[in-house]
Specification:
There is one protein chain. By secondary structure, the chain is mainly beta. It contains 1 helix and 21 strands. The strands form 3 sheets. The chain has a 17-stranded antiparallel sheet that branches. The radius of gyration is 22 Å and the shape is globular. The model is unreliable at 1-6 (pLDDT under 50).
Amino acid sequence: MMIQGKSCTLTVAKDGYYYPLPYSEETIRQASKGYALPGVIGERNREKLVITGKTIQGCFVTRLEYQNVLALFLLLFSPDDKFDVLTDRVASKLVYKNLSTDKFELRADNAKPFYLKLEVKENDDSYVTDWNITTPSLPWDEDRTFYFDGHNVLADLKKLPLVYRFELNGIFTEKSKYQITLYFPLSTEYFPSQNKIEKLTIQLDPRSGVSLDLYDLQPVGDMTDINCADTVLCFQKFNILSNVVLNIRNEEQNTTVVL
């Protein structure tokens, strides 16, 4: 990403390894935390905020590529594991230490890149520091970006005509929760389907053998069967009651990550 003619960088560091990411968006910051004092009755004093400290919050958005997809999904596999985020924003270079994963959203439009939005949370030992002379500056080396093929989505081994957009959301609380929203043209042949989908497969990159399998999808709410000659665009949400599985199977590796 270019700002004022200079390239910004975004790097995730974990267990001594550094993963430069395509810089799409990033809002990780320190925000003030504290408590409010109400204004005195009858006076013009406004409510005042007493600042007791700082908290790290925000997110970053990056594209999926073969070089980063496994590292990013491992952050989702172990959301309580700690990692660092190194940001070079031209005007400042900061390192956010000992963060964890709070929630994520994986989304894509047909024929467009996959984007992963990862929201971070701080821990008791989280802090912010400036770069020092030992901090590596790792510019992102362009690799083949993964593009979503909305005509290659399988529901119980049956190829759907078109999914022109999807959004997969996950939140990590005491129990992880996942939900996916599928956007598609309404078709009486394939939709509406109020039945549970046992397995939904999304190809992230067939050339690299990278795919995503979602198991036990329960529809949320009902769909209306519309008798209309024109194309009707609609969507359906599904709660994912079982696993979300990343598969990487090619000549270089055979890896499975189960969320």
